[in-house]
Write a structure and sequence with these properties.
four-stranded antiparallel sheet; 221 residues; alpha+beta; two-stranded antiparallel ribbon
């Protein structure tokens, strides 16, 4: 009996370590859910899986038809509420999607540890940490599409938004979102864009400034 208890304690400790490894990367980058949050999610998931299996193990071995995974399945759906809390809107952009995904994966890692599937849990943790650390650098270096915001202040009158959108489209820029703030007969448009190469930026901004009724244009990467 003592050996079983020690193994279960070891699973919980491993869940803390693996969840902490993923959470540490999020903490370093100042994300809304960091070190402690990921540890708690992974630990809680492992505990739920242990509680799901352990009390029913003897009954299952005696041939009783039980499905202990039903309790653990609620973790997968329930973690969505926690992940949603990390997603924030800042202007025209959305932040926190990667952190929400990492919480979801960490919950899965915790379930794997609680079930005793150590190989899957260890491999998943390694892949998640490598993805968070390395793929971000890969995207910045090799992905040609450039994301940013174009802020344009205009005289608020019909047709201005269409004219600016036409210029962006002419340069092959994708508009992912737009916000408009009105003030004293003027409006400030904030375009969230991608697919804008650095070499295009000066010509695009110059053409936007040449439009009638357009005042200062700014680019923020």
């Amino acid at each position: 009996m003592m050996a079983v208890e020690l193994e279960l304690m070891g699973r919980l400790a491993l869940a803390v370590v693996l969840g902490g490894l993923v959470g540490l990367e999020r903490e370093i980058h100042g994300r809304p859910a960091g070190f402690r949050t990921h540890i708690l999610v992974c630990l809680g998931s492992a505990l739920v899986m242990i509680v799901s299996f352990h009390p029913f193990a003897r009954m299952i071995s005696q041939g009783v038809d039980l499905d202990p995974t039903r309790i653990a399945a609620q973790v997968v759906s329930g973690i969505g509420f926690l992940g949603a809390g990390t997603i924030m809107r800042e202007g025209a952009s959305i932040r926190g999607l990667t952190t929400a995904a990492s919480l979801w994966v960490v919950a899965g890692i915790g379930l794997a540890v609680g079930a005793g599937y150590y190989t899957g849990a260890l491999l998943s943790t390694a892949l998640v940490v490598l993805s968070l650390l390395w793929l971000n650098r890969f995207e910045k270096r090799f992905v040609k599409s450039r994301h940013g915001t174009v802020v344009v202040r205009i005289i608020d009158r019909p047709g201005q938004l269409a004219a600016i959108s036409a210029v962006l489209g002419k340069h092959g820029v994708n508009i992912r979102g737009v916000e408009m703030d009105h003030e004293d007969g003027e409006a400030e448009l904030t375009f969230l864009v991608d697919n804008l190469r650095p070499s295009q930026t000066p010509a695009l901004l110059e053409e936007l400034r040449s439009l009638e009724g357009v005042t200062p244009v700014e680019w923020h990467s």
